[in-house]
Amino acid sequence: MDFLAELDYLALGSRLKRLSDHLISEVSQTYKTLDIDFNPRLFPLLQLLYRHGPNSISELSQALGVTHAAVSQMAHMMVKSGLASKQPDPTDERRQFLELTPEAHALYQSLTPLWQAMQSTLQQFGSQQGFLLLPAITAMEQAINQSPLQQAWLAKLNAIENNPSQANTNPTTVRLTGWQPQWREQFAALNLQWLERYFSVTEADKHALFQPEEYYLNDGGYILFAEVDSQPIGAVALKRINTDIFELSKLAVAETHQQRGIGRRLMLYAISMATMVGAQQLVLQSNRQLKAALHLYRELGFKEAVPIAGLPDFPRADIFMEKTLR
Question: What domains are defined for the chain?
Fold first, then answer.
């Protein structure tokens, strides 16, 4: 029995902590086997200092997204172990910079091959299991940053207290996932719903919807789904335009599941996926009568711009938008 799994999203933090503890334990055992004296909990700070150089505790805290106290504790451990030293800020005597020692640089170089092996193994494990963990985490982080959970929880509590019928003790779980070949027909059907309602289906649409592997996947693109009870209820696609640019297209949510934030979740998922694979920019083509979609795009940081070369030709497109990722 896994009781935390039974608690579903109520135990999300506990399950992530459990997974983190397990991974850190595995790394610690690997270091011990290889006779490497390094605390894996110092890994983020070592990486940050190595890649970006000396910095203050406050700025390191901001870059890592953790508390000042947590970074101070890690800094103390690094200084105590001879991996870092504190130096006065040349522009402000009241501040100190944390700086890696030569021993830390040597340790970093010696650990790099092992870290490469770890990254490759974890990435391969995720692919074999059919999930995209890092994009999902990034999407959730972005969603939480845009809409703090405390406000959402209190608003929902108020709604439940005013209308107890809104209390759903067994909510339907929406899961985000990558391409599933058995959902090829559903990918087309979800998009045909809105295309046929507002526009006419072009040859380019047919190519994208009925030959998605050729149109999207074979060129390094992605098709992402939202699913409920193992059935797709939403989709979005990323078409690779060149090394640095993806076109976001074919965002669709089943009519039975609209107005639930699923389109936003799919968009965040696609943005995080493009970011993870190194894209510099996302672009999209739309039509001005799709006001709800355009509102969502703008909320997520897309801005109207001049069309770039190399995009598929859709006659209905009368607005071009882009979002810089890096």
Answer: 36-124 (1.10.10.10), 133-324 (3.40.630.30)
